[in-house]
Amino acid sequence: MALKSLVLVSLLVAAVAAPMAQALIAASTQGHTFGVVHVDVTLYCTPDGNTGPFGEATPPFPNAMVLLQCGDGSIVATATTNGFGIAYLHSDPIPLFPFFPLPESDCKLIVNTTLSTCDSSLPSTGCLQSDLMFIETFALGGFIVSSFKPTGFTFIL
Predict the structure, then answer these.
(1) Fewest Cβ atoms nearer than 10 Å: which of 7, 66, 70, 87?
(2) Smallest Cα–Cα separation from 146: which of 109, 97, 104, 111?
(3) How far apart are CA 133 and CA 105, in angstroms?
(4) DSSP state string for 77-114
């Protein structure tokens, strides 16, 4: 049974890693030398920034500053949520080689606008943070675009 689980996990890892590796190999042969990180964020006015008990009817968190922080703490992209709590973050072009870093392990989202901004009953200190989950990688013009989404925000005091 343990061997079956190990084989299944190995297959899942390969299925997720293969599209990114294929895009990077294609990029090297087609002259793509830069990559862009793209993250779509929907933020809600709740203690953890995620949907509440009302699902999509949860009030959004407008005008929140969202930061994409990578590696040594560098901010590589910023965006402000719109009236629906949605923000789109795009990094500046990053050199692909020697190897494009994996943002899901090297980057995180930080919301540094206090929660009390959208609801005075929520904390006026702290911030929200989320790791990233890989969605896809594709070529767009002269760039390789890697798309990610938040795994789920947590409140950090």
Answers:
(1) 7
(2) 104
(3) 9
(4) EEEE--TTSEEEEEPPPEE-SS----HHHHEEEEE-S-
Token pair belonging to 31: 């002259």
The H or E element spanning position 40 is strand 34-42
CA dist., res. 89 & res. 78, Å (int): 6
Supply 38's token pair.
């793209």
- Contact assessment for residue 131 and residue 112, using Cβ atoms and an 8 Å cutoff: no
- pLDDT tens for the 157 residues of the chain, in order: 544 443 333 333 333 444 444 444 444 444 556 888 889 999 999 999 998 888 878 999 999 999 999 888 889 899 999 999 999 999 888 776 544 556 656 889 999 999 999 999 999 999 999 999 989 888 888 788 888 999 999 999 8
